[in-house]
Amino acid sequence: MTTARTTALEVTNLDRTFDVSPPFLNRVLYGQKRRHLHAVSDVSFSVPAGGCMSLVGESGCGKSTVARLVTGIYAPTAGEIRFAPGKSGAPLSAQMIFQDPYASLNPRWRVKNIIAEPLRELKLRATEAEIQDRVAELLGIVGLNAADGAKFPHEFSGGQRQRISIARALASEPEFLVCDEPTSALDVSVQAQILNLMRKLQDELGLTYLFISHDLSVVRHMSDRIAVMYLGRIVEEAATETLFADPKHPYTRLLLQTIPNVNDPQRDRVAAEGEVPSPLNPPSGCTFHTRCPLATDQCKAQRPELVEKADGARVACHFA
Amino acid sequence: MTTQSTNSAPSRRKRFRDSDLWWSFTHSWSARIAAVLLIVLIGSAFLAPWIAPQNPYDAASLDMWKSELPPIWQQGSEMPYLLGTDTQGRDMLSVLLYGTRISVMIGFASVIFSLLIGLTLGLVAGYFGGIADNLLMRVGDVVLSIPTILIAILVSAVVRQMLPTNLREIGAAAVLVLAITLSGWVQYARTVRAQTIVERGKEYVMAAKLLNVPKHRIMFRHILPNTLTPVLVAATLSFGMAILTEATLSFLGIGMPPGQPSLGTLIRIGNQYLFSGLWWMVIFPVVQLSLLVISVNLLGDWLRDALNPKLR
């Protein structure tokens, strides 16, 4: 890894709240209050060009919200998302690979039309013949047959659908791809195929990834840097090997313990106590203190700041 | 590069022959009988100018001496009046075929117009939500709270008064279509709206938004095709309902005029002569109407079951 790489994406102090208030009548009649869900608070990270940054965390920690904020599907409540200029000089635009390959392809469209849509919408090819050639080429790139273009999505397996999804994302010739748990709906054996395909494409096309996952072992395979999120905040961010060798936040250690170990399947593991607290009503101080083995009164009262350590890792914990 | 699949896509025709829908059709007695019956009824109605023995709209071809003839199997009947004649000497079979044609056309047109209005409003309401949704659906609720027949009577009475006298006969069919459409669009709007709300949150819609696909194209090209299955069933069933509504209005005397009788008009006229012994003037239109609506409804029921994956 080179250190002097330029930054492709700079995210600073990103905030997003959702209004989950009960309907107007309920508020008036029953005196219910407006409620806001703080899905993402104060998230900052940067993605190096040509690299892969991963966001990891449990369900509901806000990682998919970050993905949607980055691609522009949601507008941020506060904070800034800045893309570096791409090859053409204009700021990079992000394309997305979605989590559920059964919902991300329109079931009524033929595959060739699904893949051709970016080409047609963005007018990347002039004639219909060129579009069809490009579609066939893209199908080849992701390891499908050109004749598969005439089929409908339901005729494919989950892994094949995810390949179609990747082909569609590649059709718009992006330099930046946001992958929102692209393998979580797939079989373990197929997961590896898709991940290898994505790595290969990264090398061949010089793509930059923002990779979202709840699975640290998948992330280790893919990424240069990893950020661990808990209840809408980044609790630890470090280079991949630093994070695995020396996890500093108790939550990161907990996540690492959940990875099955082939060499020592019977090793002692500490089961985490409790559930993830509701993001509607997050705990005071350090939001992890309800489940943390190290928690003290200080943790309940005061939220730790994200502090950079000597080895380049950033950690938000009073004890790190 | 490893190739993930090799077999090429089958042709459209083969795809149809292999489909679940075709399989379920060939394995359903009621659906096949209903389809054959419907093809015969509608086919003969639309071929009426060529196969009917007489043109009932042409007053010159009517013969008062041939009026009130019974059907062919009874005494006193005459060829070619297979089903007898009415009080004006019109051939019942010809009147029936032409009447069916009018009924089917009015039913079909009102379903098409209800679909156009309902699909568009339902898509807009479901996709945009908020005030547009509230406004459109409350209007729909109000329309639904008034009985269909009442709306139809109101509309046809008002519009008929607005039309000049010489246009009333010609405009009768249009008025009927308008009246049935006005009360029919709501159910499509509701179905499409509910389905649109489900679909608009799916990831394929998000993928289209990422490409800045214009809203109207997301609505009509991405979402609409995925909402059509329940709409297709509703449309088939309400085609039968529309024919019945038209017949009811005509029976009540605010539908098609006696000069251009639909099945409902024929039943109304025949009803007046039932006790004079001219039973064929009312029974044949009634049987024709029943067969038509039953076969449409059987097809609709079959379609609903065939397209419902939970019933397989």
Automatic annotation (TrEMBL), chain A:
GO biological process: peptide transport; transmembrane transport
Keyword field: ATP-binding, Nucleotide-binding, Transport
Gene Ontology CC annotations of this record: plasma membrane
Membrane topology reported for the UniProt record: Peripheral membrane protein
Highest rank taxon of the organism: Bacteria
GO molecular function: ATP binding; ATP hydrolysis activity
Record PROSITE patterns: ABC_TRANSPORTER_1, ABC_TRANSPORTER_2
Database matches in SUPFAM superfamilies: P-loop containing nucleoside triphosphate hydrolases
Record localization: Cell inner membrane
Domain ABC transporter, first and last residues per copy: 9-256
A family per Pfam: oligo_HPY
Family from the record: Belongs to the ABC transporter superfamily.
This protein's name: Peptide/nickel transport system ATP-binding protein
Lineage: Bacteria, Pseudomonadati, Pseudomonadota, Alphaproteobacteria, Rhodobacterales
TrEMBL record, chain B:
GO BP field: transmembrane transport
Transmembrane segments: 21-52, 102-128, 135-158, 170-188, 231-257, 277-300
InterPro entries: BP-dependent_transpt_permease, MetI-like, MetI-like_sf, OppC_N
Membrane association type: Multi-pass membrane protein
Entry keyword Zinc: no
Domain of life: Bacteria
A GO CC annotation given for this chain: plasma membrane
Compartments reported by the entry: Cell membrane
The entry's keywords: Cell membrane, Membrane, Transmembrane, Transmembrane helix, Transport
Alphabetical list of Pfam families matching this protein: BPD_transp_1, OppC_N
Major site of localization recorded for this protein: membrane
Domain ABC transmembrane type-1: start-end pairs: 100-300
Record-stated family: Belongs to the binding-protein-dependent transport system permease family.
Protein name, entry field: Peptide/nickel transport system permease protein
